[in-house]
Amino acid sequence: MALLKKWTMLLPAGALLAAAACNGGASVPPTAAGGAPGSQLSSFDSNFASPQDNTSILKGLTKDVVIASTVDPTNGDSGPHSIAVASTSYGTLKKGYLTFCNFSDSSGNAGKGTTVDYVQPKPSSKAATFAQSSDIAGCAGDTVTTGNDVFAAGLTSKLLTQFGDTGKTIKTWNFKGPFSPVDASNKQLYAAEYIFTGDVKNGTITSFSINYYGNQKPLQVISGFAVNKKPGWSALGPTGLQYFPKKDTLYAVDGVDNTVVSFNHASELLVADEIVVQKGGKTFKCKYPKTTCGTLVYSGSPLNAPVAMAVLPNGNLVVANSAGGNTLVEIDTSTGKVLDTKVVDTSKTAGVFGLLATGTKDSNTVLYYTDANTNTLHELEP
Asked: Do residues 3 and 62 share a domain?
């Protein structure tokens, strides 16, 4: 009953009526792993204007506002990685709250951080602990589901951990080097809600559904990404995963080959190694090329060991380099052109390991980023 109550609170009235009609008034099945059944989850409203407008958003984001310190208030963990957003108000998180991982401990030891924190998206916010566990040691990414469960990747622990909406551990999965999980869901009532997770140790992307409408068993659907086999902050491979629900497209950065790639019909990736990235990271071997395959979005300079990425409401991507300075690169996915670059931290030490865009149109888009050099979360705004 608790799961059903939770789901009904998250669905609009019209959707509930549709569910009752489809089931003859019967209850909708509970989820397989504690999350709410699939509905829209995205870092922005899906009702933005449909044609990609090719406008540079990054160029217009001229104000850099510090939102909060990212140091965990409970144990002092530092080194923020990843940013996710709650799309609903349930449990601990309220709609619009931002979550992030801490990769380091209070002494700055890489790979020792064990916390996921959250903040309100406004200046002078105070970070609060959502979850703390050795299961996420070296927390290298987190994502929030429709039901406000949080999935966090522990690069050191080699585990992907699901926390319930109040921060209690529900389940863990074994990986080699989990990184950058992303939640992928859409507006259809009985659609699957997938979690995609990159692995920087074996160069793969794994997918599984957290409800009854998809593949609940973790499945390695993409393989062949290059990895650099370096530890801690320097680990590179398939990272910065982002899902664009309007096009059912999954994006990833390849920090070794300096590429950004996309995978179409991501919700239909249901076969082991369905897509294999070829050497060099620019071409793909696809089992079902007419349905699911990979595409090179961009390669080369100014990309320099990219590690984080955000998809903007207008469809552009913003990528964060981890070498050569903390430069953000905006890419038009429809033309493959670089639209703008912006240095957000003049230190030569990599600091930006988390990006997130919110908004509904060009004029109200904002971009959040984490800075591990200063242990702060920032908002770039017009």
From this structure: no
Same domain, 16 and 126: no
Give 120-154 pLDDT, tens digit per residue.
999 999 999 999 999 999 999 999 999 999 999 99
Q: What is the DSSP letter of 163?
A: E
In this structure, what token pair is assigned to residue 48? 């933005």
Write out the DSSP string of 19-86: HHHHTTTPPPPPPSSSSPPP----SS-TTS-SS-----SGGG--EEEEEEE-S-TTT--EEEEEEEE-
**232-267 per-position pLDDT tens digit:** 999 999 999 999 999 999 999 999 999 999 999 999
pTM for this model (two decimals)? 0.88
Q: If you count DSSP H runs as helices and E runs as strands, how many of each does the chain have, helices first?
A: 2, 26
6 shares a domain with 45: no
**6 and 86, same structural domain?**
no
The span from the CA of 133 to the CA of 123, in Å, is 28
Residue 245: which domain range? Answer: 39-381
